[in-house]
Amino acid sequence: xxxxxxxxxxxxxxxxxxxxxxxxxxxxxxxxxxxxxxxxxxxxxxxxxxxxxxxxxxxxxxxxxxxxxxxxxxxxxxxxxxxxxxxxxxxxxxxxxxxxxxxxxxxxxxxxxxxxxxxxxxxxxxxxxxxxxxxxxxxxxxxxxxxxxxxxxxxxxxxxxxxxxxxxxxxxxxxxxxxxxxxxxxxxxxxxxxxxxxxxxxxxxxxxxxxxxxxxxxxxxxxxxxxxxxxxxxxxxxxxxxxxxxxxxxxxxxxxxxxxxxxxxxxxxxxxxxxxxxxxxxxxxxxxxxxxxxxxxxxxxxxxxxxxxxxxxx
Length: 314
Ligand code: RIB
Hints:
Elements: E1 5-8, E2 12-19, E3 33-39, H1 41-51, E4 56-63, H2 66-77, E5 81-88, E6 93-100, E7 105-110, E8 132-135, H3 141-154, E9 157-161, E10 178-182, H4 183-190, H5 193-198, H6 200-204, H7 212-220, E11 225-229, E12 235-239, E13 242-246, H8 259-272, H9 277-291, H10 304-312
The protein binds alpha-D-ribofuranose (RIB).
């Protein structure tokens, strides 16, 4: 049995409306469908890691309402250990999501119980023996910081998906072994004064701050390993002076919600299983490409066998 992955993060009920195109500010548009899905970046990434075969312990919070019970049951159904999932007074977190015909989305979060997950809610013993501890930023920064410290003390590899990126630069970079960000998140982090100062070569010379190579150089000055997800353009990574790139498969896109979470959870499952870095990235990239072909967050996350089938087909 592989050593476990610990995920500290959010749990949301996603209320999803589809629209032909995302409305401009001030516009009123008709939706074409409405559905609810199990979501939350933390829960989605935990599900992705579990479906790729990792033993997963989830630390987070739901409210004492019907949605909280439903979302807890969904994690249990995916074989995830929820001993560290608190039920707190008040409502569960939810997300309002608009998905356009081209698969792009906009998301508005209502933190609910996620916003009430405190540092003291994290049981230090949950990190003991973990191979990897995975964090996102839909729970309070102080809680993420405490989790990073506990994971570091327990000897786990720490992975931070800095999404959404607000406040990420306040977390000590030395507590983060692997940073996973998309281009928007990377640009937000790279524009922090510290990163800019240290990436003088890449950016001060006038390089495009959204150019993947410049973003990687900026962030690699702070973080040991950086993985930059680029949607249909695949993924780029930096580890010290090393740089790498992996293309994505071209697939029809139905809904991009949860694609980054699927990538991150699958990558972490590979890391925990000791899969070589290049193969872990390849499997994670395939998993994300399968996710975008199906609507919903957790509903669209593939299993290891699905990824193996695609790999086998070349
Ligand atoms: O990354 C997608 C997720 O972001 C959704 O499931 C939504 O809940 C928000 O957390």
